[in-house]
Amino acid sequence: MMKKNKKYGSLTIVTTIILVLGFLILYYLRPNNQKKEIPLSPEQTVNLFYDQWIENKTETINSASYKDNKYLNALAEEEIKRTIESTANSDKKLDPVLCGQNKPENFSLELINKNKSKSQIIVRTDHSGVIKEILVELVNENNVWQINKIDCSIGEKNDLSSEDQQAISEYFAKNISELSPEKEVLGGKFYITSLDFIDENNLIIEYEDGHIALSAEVNFQYLDSENIEINEFNIMN
């Protein structure tokens, strides 16, 4: 009789162990008990965002799908929307994320500033050896990093190449009449007589129309051969 009880007791222990193991397996396999997602770092956030943007650049701009992008906060979305809409009627929409550039061959990131609430990262895009720099600012809200601002004003890392200078010269030659605050004398047409680069964002230009001769100091931002932003055009004489 004791042997029988001992046998039943061993069977009960084995059964209990199997039930406990089965319960634990079911518990840890429950969908609502998955591991918590680890928050992305600022670098990871920017890297994922730029990867997606470069891959789907045209579609993203045309469909405005950036409005649903989890890596952007409302302020960044609004700024991107405003920039895109400002060129909506032109042949080529300005890209506010790549600062007007075409798709780069590759890009790299450098974290230059970080605290608990804000981070700054420089994105360097490589266009056939010409490096463009973009400053990206992120903010941390509820332990989630999101892009708050994309600043294109830091511009180009290297001095303008001869090809860039040629493209800029051709742009001014083609558009000088529209750019000049002074208008041609009736019957005349402006043409450039001299153009000298001070640095990569400033130049001195001399032009005339056969009746009047003018000089101007111009501050500009060169994005690419089809996108040159004029910040100031000041007549000097």
From TrEMBL:
<keyword id="KW-0472">Membrane</keyword>
<feature type="transmembrane region" description="Helical">
    <location>
        <begin position="12"/>
        <end position="29"/>
    </location>
</feature>
<keyword id="KW-1133">Transmembrane helix</keyword>
<protein>
    <submittedName>
        <fullName>Uncharacterized protein</fullName>
    </submittedName>
</protein>
<keyword id="KW-0812">Transmembrane</keyword>
